[in-house]
Amino acid sequence: MESIFFLVVAAVAVISSILVVTCKNPINSALSLVMTFFCLATFYVMLDAPFMAATQVIVYAGAIMVLIIFVIMLLNVRVETVKRGTHAVIAGSAIGLFILFQTVWFLMKGSMTGKVGDMTKEQIVSVGHVELIGKALFTDFLLPFEVTSVLLLAAIVGAVILAKKKI
Amino acid sequence: MLAIENYLIVSAILFAIGTIGVLTKRNAIVIFMCIEMMLNAVNLTFIAFSRHLGNIDGQVFVFFVMTVAAAEAAVGLALMIAFFKNRESIDVEDVNLLKL
Amino acid sequence: METIAMPAINLAVIMPEILLSCIAMVLLLVNVFVPGNNKAYLGYLSIIGLAVTAASAVGGWGPSVSAFNGSVVQDNFAIFFKVIFLISAGLAILISDRYMVQEDCNQGELYPMILFATVGMMLMASGTDLMVIFLGLELLSICLYVLAGWNRDNLKSNEAGLKYFLLGAFSTGFLLYGMALTYGATGSTKIQAISSYVMGNPGVASNPLFVVGMLLIAVGFSFKIAAAPFHMWTPDVYQGAPTPMTAFMSAGPKAAGFAAFIRVMIFAFPMLRAEWSDLLWILAVLTMTVGNIIALSQDNVKRMLAYSSIAHAGYALVGFAAVNAEGAAGILFYMLSYAFMNIGAFAVIILITKKGEVNGNVQDLAGFGHKKPLLAMVLSIFLFSLAGMPPTAGFIGKFYLFSAAIKAGYVWLAIIGVLNSAASLYYYLRVMVFMYMKDPEEDFEWAGATPAIAVCLLVAVGATLVLGVVPGTVLELAQKAVQF
């Protein structure tokens, strides 16, 4: 049952990600990308990470994609008419496929490391996923957490400087 | 639970499709979307490993990747708007000498 | 609900980072609330801030202290690099004022952005958790995308920002994928834990999962330090970005890339040094050769310096390929001297470019030597140092890098490096030929140096010569810094 469900979601994810690349209209690409993001959120649920699934939908499909679609509308991006030079397509696809084969080959050959942590499904259910992540964020990863605040401030200032009409 | 390799292979496929998109598309916004797809593929890898290892670190990493992706989106789209104001186009082939 | 036990927090370890981000935020507020259009004073305030930060960073010199559950460390290696970053940020700020006024750019937020970028670089050097290194790198990159596109009304600058952004984010994807696979293979993102896992399980070194993860991390870092074949963004970005920012990008962030690269490769994977060596010398040879050969045919001085900066990354990689203490110390010394000589050269370029013209062509320099003899001499010193002629810092730096390679058995690698240096003489000397031996086609008056640029030039020339003549003390410090 689970494997059938996985196959369906995986097929949808791959097809919609191919559509992102092949669609001529950027809006279609953006909508296909939202589809891919939802499929990934489904995977996260299947991997017992419900909080990450929610964040995926809220941050990616919600915030980032809305921003992208907003910019597409604002700039009134026209449909791609001229094809990129065929040599670029061939070279790009070759590099991409090479990466794919290499990675998959390594993954198939690679042996997995055994369990190192103590996070189990029972624990996730009993303690709660959000609590687990929150605890990790405020203990082990306190410094990275603080660094993100500086990063977001710098990004806000930078975006305003670049896009504001009159400073 | 399904074997972890299934998730890893799906994420490798998504990563490769994203790479192909970055290298073959000409519209800067679509290229940016393909980059987001690559980052998402990485996120899937992280969460799959996190589940497999029984270790929350990978999910915390995903948390930070999402934050960074949002910050990058803000800055990148601002750059595109600034470029569009001067050029009225965001095709990368109009970006002089941009040989990808 | 159990209470969360907070880990021991040692703020002293990240004091320089805290100080510098606070100063940057204060400057942002000062910029908003203090009226007036002349923002030059913000630059001087940030120089003071950088000096205070440098003092606090140097104060930690000594045995290494780790904090935040092993996410960050204060060791001599990080401190040496932090000083390089702070110096390059300070020199870049000194030369920004005149350029930004000339190009009608917004100045108020420029200095805080440079300071934020510096915080990112410092975190890359001191981070011992892949997450901290990644976030430091992103903080740096996001600031640099903005700084490259700072001149909003100039199409070249827009292009530079957009191109840098797209390729930077693309390379981040590879870096992250590599980190994910490494995490999967070793079960941790902390360099200490990865290292001890690899020590405890030698089998993991040949685990394909781990190997491909390491390769992808290497690809990601190679993008950031502009090593061939991942250098294609460099020339356009360096040429299009505002000149002071080009100077900054070529000195600080490149050093930061090396700091993180060395930290990850040598600290986390001590077992794999032989494998690294093989990968790195190929990278070094490619990078030196590609950078120098293309630089030979450049007419634009900024673009020429961009290709030369690729070549210089190649020289530093020679020391990296040696994977011994001498090589690492050589990189530290070389990055320090490169910051001085390269920012100095760009400072002179700022003085010779007219408003709106991003292209300072080599032909524009005709007659410069006779009209501005002092500036021309200063530029010649920088170019000699970049070419690696004694008695300048560039010579000593290259000498140590190449001798480290010879010590590690890579004699022919050192020979290729020396041949490349000889080839690079041609394009550096060509600039001097134009300065001293050609007559100008049109009458053109170059503006004089402002006090800030004069200070920058003075410091840079002084350091280039002092490091070239009496390198002993700094080299000793560099050697102490790499005793892991």
From TrEMBL, chain A:
<keyword id="KW-1133">Transmembrane helix</keyword>
<feature type="transmembrane region" description="Helical">
    <location>
        <begin position="87"/>
        <end position="108"/>
    </location>
</feature>
<dbReference type="InterPro" id="IPR001457">
    <property type="entry name" value="NADH_UbQ/plastoQ_OxRdtase_su6"/>
</dbReference>
<keyword id="KW-0520">NAD</keyword>
<feature type="transmembrane region" description="Helical">
    <location>
        <begin position="53"/>
        <end position="75"/>
    </location>
</feature>
<protein>
    <recommendedName>
        <fullName>NADH-quinone oxidoreductase subunit J</fullName>
        <ecNumber>7.1.1.-</ecNumber>
    </recommendedName>
</protein>
<feature type="transmembrane region" description="Helical">
    <location>
        <begin position="30"/>
        <end position="47"/>
    </location>
</feature>
<keyword id="KW-0874">Quinone</keyword>
<keyword id="KW-0812">Transmembrane</keyword>
<feature type="transmembrane region" description="Helical">
    <location>
        <begin position="6"/>
        <end position="23"/>
    </location>
</feature>
<comment type="similarity">
    <text>Belongs to the complex I subunit 6 family.</text>
</comment>
<dbReference type="Pfam" id="PF00499">
    <property type="entry name" value="Oxidored_q3"/>
</dbReference>
<feature type="transmembrane region" description="Helical">
    <location>
        <begin position="141"/>
        <end position="163"/>
    </location>
</feature>
<keyword id="KW-0472">Membrane</keyword>
<comment type="function">
    <text>NDH-1 shuttles electrons from NADH, via FMN and iron-sulfur (Fe-S) centers, to quinones in the respiratory chain. Couples the redox reaction to proton translocation (for every two electrons transferred, four hydrogen ions are translocated across the cytoplasmic membrane), and thus conserves the redox energy in a proton gradient.</text>
</comment>
Automatic annotation (TrEMBL), chain B:
<keyword id="KW-0830">Ubiquinone</keyword>
<keyword id="KW-1003">Cell membrane</keyword>
<dbReference type="GO" id="GO:0030964">
    <property type="term" value="C:NADH dehydrogenase complex"/>
</dbReference>
<dbReference type="InterPro" id="IPR001133">
    <property type="entry name" value="NADH_UbQ_OxRdtase_chain4L/K"/>
</dbReference>
<keyword id="KW-0813">Transport</keyword>
<comment type="function">
    <text>NDH-1 shuttles electrons from NADH, via FMN and iron-sulfur (Fe-S) centers, to quinones in the respiratory chain. The immediate electron acceptor for the enzyme in this species is believed to be ubiquinone. Couples the redox reaction to proton translocation (for every two electrons transferred, four hydrogen ions are translocated across the cytoplasmic membrane), and thus conserves the redox energy in a proton gradient.</text>
</comment>
<dbReference type="GO" id="GO:0005886">
    <property type="term" value="C:plasma membrane"/>
</dbReference>
<dbReference type="GO" id="GO:0050136">
    <property type="term" value="F:NADH dehydrogenase (quinone) (non-electrogenic) activity"/>
</dbReference>
<feature type="transmembrane region" description="Helical">
    <location>
        <begin position="6"/>
        <end position="23"/>
    </location>
</feature>
<keyword id="KW-1278">Translocase</keyword>
<comment type="similarity">
    <text>Belongs to the complex I subunit 4L family.</text>
</comment>
<dbReference type="GO" id="GO:0042773">
    <property type="term" value="P:ATP synthesis coupled electron transport"/>
</dbReference>
<keyword id="KW-0812">Transmembrane</keyword>
<feature type="transmembrane region" description="Helical">
    <location>
        <begin position="30"/>
        <end position="49"/>
    </location>
</feature>
<protein>
    <recommendedName>
        <fullName>NADH-quinone oxidoreductase subunit K</fullName>
        <ecNumber>7.1.1.-</ecNumber>
    </recommendedName>
</protein>
TrEMBL record, chain C:
<feature type="domain" description="NADH:quinone oxidoreductase/Mrp antiporter transmembrane">
    <location>
        <begin position="128"/>
        <end position="421"/>
    </location>
</feature>
<feature type="transmembrane region" description="Helical">
    <location>
        <begin position="409"/>
        <end position="429"/>
    </location>
</feature>
<feature type="transmembrane region" description="Helical">
    <location>
        <begin position="162"/>
        <end position="185"/>
    </location>
</feature>
<dbReference type="InterPro" id="IPR010096">
    <property type="entry name" value="NADH-Q_OxRdtase_suN/2"/>
</dbReference>
<feature type="transmembrane region" description="Helical">
    <location>
        <begin position="77"/>
        <end position="96"/>
    </location>
</feature>
<comment type="function">
    <text>NDH-1 shuttles electrons from NADH, via FMN and iron-sulfur (Fe-S) centers, to quinones in the respiratory chain. The immediate electron acceptor for the enzyme in this species is believed to be ubiquinone. Couples the redox reaction to proton translocation (for every two electrons transferred, four hydrogen ions are translocated across the cytoplasmic membrane), and thus conserves the redox energy in a proton gradient.</text>
</comment>
<comment type="subunit">
    <text>NDH-1 is composed of 14 different subunits. Subunits NuoA, H, J, K, L, M, N constitute the membrane sector of the complex.</text>
</comment>
<keyword id="KW-0812">Transmembrane</keyword>
<keyword id="KW-1003">Cell membrane</keyword>
<keyword id="KW-0830">Ubiquinone</keyword>
<feature type="transmembrane region" description="Helical">
    <location>
        <begin position="41"/>
        <end position="62"/>
    </location>
</feature>
<keyword id="KW-0472">Membrane</keyword>
<feature type="transmembrane region" description="Helical">
    <location>
        <begin position="255"/>
        <end position="273"/>
    </location>
</feature>
<feature type="transmembrane region" description="Helical">
    <location>
        <begin position="304"/>
        <end position="325"/>
    </location>
</feature>
<dbReference type="Pfam" id="PF00361">
    <property type="entry name" value="Proton_antipo_M"/>
</dbReference>
